[in-house]
Specification:
Blueprint: E1 5-10, H1 26-39, E2 44-50, E3 62-65, E4 77-82, H2 107-114, E5 120-123, H3 126-132, E6 136-137, E7 159-162, H4 169-175, E8 184-187, H5 209-215, E9 218-221, H6 225-230, H7 235-242, E10 247-249, H8 253-259, E11 264-265, H9 270-280, H10 283-300, H11 303-317
Helix pairs in contact: 1-11, 7-10
Length: 318
């Protein structure tokens, strides 16, 4: 690339990180991490974020779309960032996220649906890439300038989970409900169904998120079903480990291949209860795993490292 790149990132919604007490979207958290890391390099002149309704008047080299129902830039290379395969055509444009949109209910049909729409594809997992198209694999990561060990004395819970109540009732009963009597606390939206509604404390201010991850004795994680299916490691894992937090999570093979025994894995129900009891009583093992996890994330899973992959891919297509 002879000239520095001008890059746009188009999201479904922007400004969620700036709303006090608002519901922060993962897409914007990721996009801002990309923006900051890209601007550190010598190859990028500008990175601007746009929402669904913004008219992009700037002359750009690349626009990266986090949602498929967005207008393309007529002069730029348009890339699509695929995170999972969950949205059906009737939901197109109604929700955020970068899910595959496909007719007929198969991933292969998706490729036929939009294969000529974009100039390139970015994926969160190798499995998505294998099933969809050529492109670059850019998993989620963490912003180590924001997510690092912090304490304030307000979030010293035995167990906590931060996330909206978007998982199925069976997942919630499997991974969260068994832990209520051990002191589980939940932060997020849409926890309206008993018994978990009784332990939800509403939205957590964004500046306090790394403090909770750092102070909670056990941070819980359960992927949405589409992330499990397509082996996309969710954002929460990287951020908690960057804060030196300890995690009990659900399981899939790629998760263990990436993080090994820095995480504790569970099938839920009695198993997650037993493991929570075990590790609440073993501070040394919690510390060992969390310290190893923090080292691993900082060495291999920050946005700075992810953007090196993106820039290599952009050099190939521009």
């Amino acid at each position: 690339m002879k000239n520095k790149l001008k890059i746009g990132i188009r999201l479904f919604q922007t400004g969620t990180l700036d709303i006090k007490g608002g519901n922060v979207t993962g897409d914007e958290l990721i996009a801002r991490g990309w923006q900051k890391s890209l601007l550190k390099t010598d190859f990028v002149e500008s990175v601007n974020l746009y929402n669904m309704n913004d008219v992009i008047e700037e002359k750009l080299d690349v626009v990266i779309h986090f949602h498929p129902n967005q207008p393309l830039h007529p002069q730029a290379k348009n890339l699509f960032y695929l995170q999972n395969a969950y949205q059906k055509p009737q939901h197109l444009g109604k929700t955020g996220g970068a899910g595959l949109i496909y007719e007929g209910g198969t991933v292969e049909a998706f490729h036929n649906f939009i294969k000529n729409k974009y100039d390139g594809y970015l994926f969160t997992s190798q499995k998505l890439k294998y099933h969809c198209a050529d492109g670059a694999v850019i998993p989620f990561a963490t912003d180590a300038d924001f997510f690092y060990p912090q304490t304030c004395g307000l979030y010293e819970y035995p167990l906590s989970f931060v996330g909206n109540g978007i998982r199925s009732a069976s997942v919630n009963q499997r991974y969260f409900a068994p832990l209520i009597n051990l002191g589980l606390v939940i932060y997020g939206n849409m926890w309206t169904i008993p018994p978990l509604d009784s332990v939800c404390r509403g939205l957590l201010p964004m500046p306090d998120l790394p403090k909770l991850y750092s102070e909670s004795l056990i941070n819980l994680n359960a992927h949405i079903s589409e992330h499990l299916e397509w082996e996309t490691i969710n954002l929460r894992i990287y951020d908690i480990l960057a804060c030196g937090g300890f995690i009990i999570s659900d399981y899939f093979e790629s998760l263990e291949n990436t993080f090994g025994d820095t995480l504790v894995y569970s099938d839920g129900y009695e198993d997650i209860w037993a493991k929570a009891v075990e590790y609440l009583a073993n501070s040394e093992e919690r510390k060992r795993r969390s310290e190893e996890g923090k080292k691993l994330v900082l060495a291999h899973h920050t946005y700075d490292q992810r953007m090196k992959v993106l820039l290599d891919f952009l050099r190939e297509i521009i």
